[in-house]
Amino acid sequence: MMVKTTKSVTPFALFIGENRASLSTLFFFTVMMTCFLIANPKVFTNPIIYNAVFVTLPVAIFLVVPLVFTVTGGEIDLSFPSNMAMSSWIFSLAIQKGLPPILGLILAVVVGMAIGAVIGTIVVYGNLSSLVCTLGFNFLLRGFIMIFTEGRSITILELQDSLFHNALAGTFLGLPVQTMWVLLFTIFFAFVFNQHSYGAWVHCVGDNPESAAQMGIDVKRVRISFFILVGLGSALAGVFSVLVNFSWWPTTGDGYLLTALASVFVGGTPTWGGVGTVVGGALGAIIVSFMETGVVAAGLTGFYIQFFKGLLIILSLLAHRYSTKRYR
């Protein structure tokens, strides 16, 4: 009598299978940094360039992590640049009026999440395309800011050397403190995305909303929550951008639209929903940030940045598409 045996899966193979997208992104980053190191070893062996990137990198990651939830859930949010400006405007006004900085932070987060809730409600209950609706809100909010500020900026030098600034965006052992906060932010939401029931709901809604509803998931509430999360990330990104620069501009957030979306896709979260990776998204933000700095530092002009950014997105999507067939 023949006994049929099953092949056991080693913990290492299981780890590779569960984290293929993140590991693929890490591979992209390793190859890219190796190329930069070979091109200009003097620059890329100097810690100064890494410290310069890590000062502003947390702002991008605060935006990217919530976007991973949104894209995985089958939606898209293009309003986050203006939401970032609106939230940081509220924070700057609070500081300018003499309110405690912590209260300004709370107000910024409340405003950012409230805007996300309004957008999500309109998308879900108005049965609108999230792409078109959030794009419209991006213009609407930016126009509102321009009308009321008339293009004027706000400087808040009173935060310099304050306990609030040093605790959130100071330096510790030569490293920017904001990297620690964004690391905790990423770890928390990676746990929610991979281990909590809410993360499972996000995957189910993005993969097949009809089936998710039959399973008892409140699809509408989950979809609205995507935009609230993006509002939270936008508010935190806006506040930290002000803390880094001690200034607020009406154009705050404009430069992050394509950068944040590129980071999501490079990080291994495809456009078709149901699949995503928070850690990969954070790594994607690191890749995009270092690429923008590294291309110039390697001796090329800034004209090459857009070319390599587009090439990186296309190649990463093709690679993730190939691997997704095996682990989705």
Residues in helices, as a percent range? over 70%
Q: What amount of the residues lies in strands? A: under 5%
Q: Report on the biggest sheet.
A: 2 strands, antiparallel
Number of strands: 4
Tell me the series of helices and strands, N- to C-terminal.
HHHHHHHEHEEHHHHEHHH
Mean pLDDT across all amino acids: 88
* Count of runs of 4 or more consecutive helical residues: 15
Distance between termini? 37 Å
Q: Which blocks of ≥5 consecutive residues have pLDDT under 50?
A: none
Secondary structure class reads mainly alpha
Strand order in the largest sheet: 1-4
Taking all Cα atoms into account, the compactness measure Rg is 21 Å
Tell me, briefly, the overall form. globular
Offer a few descriptive terms.
328 residues; globular; two-stranded antiparallel sheet; single chain; two-stranded antiparallel ribbon; mainly alpha; 2% strand
Could you explain how this protein is built, in words?
A hairpin with a 2-residue loop joins β2 (171-172) and β3. It contains 15 helices and four strands. The two termini are 37 Å apart. The protein has helices at residues 11-18, 20-39, 41-44, 47-72, 80-96, 101-125, 130-149, 163-169, 178-195, 197-207, 209-214, 219-245, 257-266, 278-297, 303-327, and strands at residues 154-155, 171-172, 175-176, 247-248. The protein has a two-stranded antiparallel ribbon. Strands 2-3 form a two-stranded antiparallel sheet. The mean pLDDT is 88. It has a domain at 49-253. The protein has 328 residues and is an all-alpha fold. Helices cover 74% and strands 2% of the residues. α5 packs antiparallel against α6 and α5 (80-96) crosses α12.
